[in-house]
Structures are given as C-alpha cells and as structure tokens.
C-alpha cells in the first residue's frame, strides 16, 4: 500500500473518530412495515393492465414498448406484476380467455415472469422459450421490421435466462443444457433475419449473442457457419449494420483468429473493435485490449506503458513476454 493511500486511510479514520465523539446515540430503526395485502381484484387488474400494454404495443407496432415488456431477467424479485401473479394463480386462463389469438405467446410469458420472480430459473427458461417461439412465428409474418428491437430483447433474454437456468441445474446435480438449447433457438432467429429485406439489419446482433453462447460452452467451432453466412451471403452489407454490433462482432472474430494463431488478421479485427468502440465504455475497451495487447506483442509492437497503466493491463503484458525485438506503437 503506497504512502498516499495510507495517508488517505489515516485521515479518513481520524475524521470518523471525531464524528463518533460528537454524534448522539442513534435511535433504533423501526422494523419494516408488512407488505400491503393484495386483493384478488387488484391482482386481476394488474395482470390485465400488463396484457393490455403488450397487445397495444403489438397492435400499434411499438417495438420499444414491446421490448421493455418482454424483458424478464432484469426484473427484480418482487414487482407489482409478479406480486399479482402470485396472488392470482389462474392468470393463464385470464390471458387465454382475453386474448386467445396471442395465448401461445402471452401465457408462457406470464409463467416465465412468475417463475423468475420465485427464482425457479429452469422453469422460467422453459416457459420463456415457448413464448419466444410463438413470438418468432408472429415476427416472421410481419412484413416490416418494427419489432426488431423486441426480437433483440427476446434473443438477449433467452441467453441470460439460460445462463441462470444452467447454474441452477448444475447446483442441483442436473444436466445444464439450457444454454445449448438457447443456441439452437437463436439459430432459428438468425434464419428469420438472414433474408432479403429490412429485417436483415438485425442479424448481426443475434450473431453476437450466438458467439457469447458458443464461447461460454467452449464450442467456438460452431461460430464458423454463422461467420460464413455474414461474410459471404449477398444479403448482407457489413457496413449497414449498427456500429455497436460491428464492434462486438469484430471482438469475437478477432478472438477466434487469436485461437487460430492468425495474429495479423486478429490485429486487424481487434484494432477495428478498439477504434470503433464507445470511448466512454472503459470496461469494453479493456476487454478488447486484453486480447489486442498480446497480439501486438506477437507481431513485434510494444504498446505504450501509459495505455497499459490506464487500463490496468501491465500483468497481461508481463505474462506475454516476447523474444521479438519490439518497436514502440
């Protein structure tokens, strides 16, 4: 610990000590109030309101609103909707009776939200996959790409829920197979996007979700078929994709080139990712540099020490010592 840090701690302790001598004895904190009773009628109203918002988002082609409504994994354990689902167990019939044309989507979506709030993640994943499959079928039938943001949220959610489910299954001694199933589903989503028309602009985002699954599972060889579809199909023009998706794509394909020891190609891809990454996202910049620094060293380029210090990468540099005579980048 440096002298400066010690001084900071010493001065902080002295201030704390002075405050303790002058503060009055604290009043005991009262116990938290009991949660308000939720009537069946109020639970019915909340569930109905949620269903109405989902259906209205679809009927008005509001992709952003729909995307927020299908985000399951980011919800806290207790929400007004999850409390209502716990109070009103007959919610599947309510959804099916009110909106029978969307029952295949709405009923499992509610079940997934309910299971997730109870931290039954394997059940939440299974229900969400059913909802996602029904949504994908509807998405295929819509001519315009208005629901692309919602489809991206579904792709993200199914990966995140699968990761939670696999952790739960592994802890209980069961086969953690949900992430593999999520990869299979996302390939169907990719197929729905890899067509001529405006929907193809969303294909790279789904590709990046697939990369994250394959890297986590250690099945990176499966990336190759998706890469061929992106880089050789006439349907795609790489420059048309959103910048953030191109950065993620170059990051993962650059890592693949590192594994294959194609360091010059890896340097090009990772450098592209670094140059186009949001400069405010230091965590993402560091992720890129963790692979780019060793690549630079392997081709005889020594990154500046200030860069390594800024992103706390000195250990990576030491562990990647090279016998080549480096030049300053």
Automatic annotation (TrEMBL):
Protein name: PCI domain-containing protein
Species per Swiss-Prot/TrEMBL record: Urochloa decumbens
InterPro entries xrefs: Csn12-like (IPR045114)
